[in-house]
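hey so i finally got around to running the thing on that chain from the lab meeting. sorry it took forever, my laptop kept dying and i had to restart like 3 times. anyway pasting the input first so we r on the same page abt which one it is
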Amino acid sequence: MPHKTKPKSGFWKLAIALAITSLLGYGVIIEPRWVVVTLLQKQVGLKGATFKIAQLSDLHLSGMGATEEAALRHLKALQPDLILLTGDVIGDRHALPALEDFLKSLPDAIKVAILGNWEHWSGVDLQQLSALYKRHQVRLLVNECMPLVVNGVHLSLAGLDDYTAGQPDLVRTLQQCTQGAPIIMAQHSPGMFDEAPSPELGQIAYSLAGHTHGGQVAVGKHALFTPRGSGRYVAGSYPTAWGDLYVSRGIGTSMMPLRIGARPEMVFLELR
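ok and heres what got predicted. didnt touch it at all, straight out
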């Protein structure tokens, strides 16, 4: 019988090296630019009307690249009534010019932002940041509640300071909300929702968070790593003691410019 030779170990080492290189190339070049839209719906009693919220989280802006352009294309196609920036829009105090370029490109809509941990950690002057937002008709909510009226129905948008690096004040925020109105709550770090809700908690119709980046390297809701302040959350929909929560994978990257199994995401919430 002919003697069967075993494949040389060098072949397998080369194959493994090529596979790892290809995966890393995909994770650095392709997936971070592959922005997807997640469609959500919530009944809040709008009497046949629809109010559309586009959530962009964790942009970590440093310039106007392919990822940012893809997000803007989605926004212009979807035509939301409200654009909600849920923190970590910048991660460095030197990124304000990049933020200004991005804000200039946003389509017409009600525009609201909240703070994330990196707005606190970056050393940016928060008054300067607030003034920049204001110049571009973006309202920065820091423990504030903003009224919305849709088809004669009153809603409230509650924007909390970041749970990880800031000082969220739920009582102060809810006191500003329209009494009896359904509340949409925006909080950057979802770990807050692991805590027992305050007895002052009103009618939270839906909550939106970010912060986790979906782990950046993940399989479904199983991630290699999520940052402090994530709690048990990775990405997607979760029932909580506060009500229904959606945790966005966000748009940008942090610490490493890599996404594998955690495509950048814009959340599009239709309130009905």
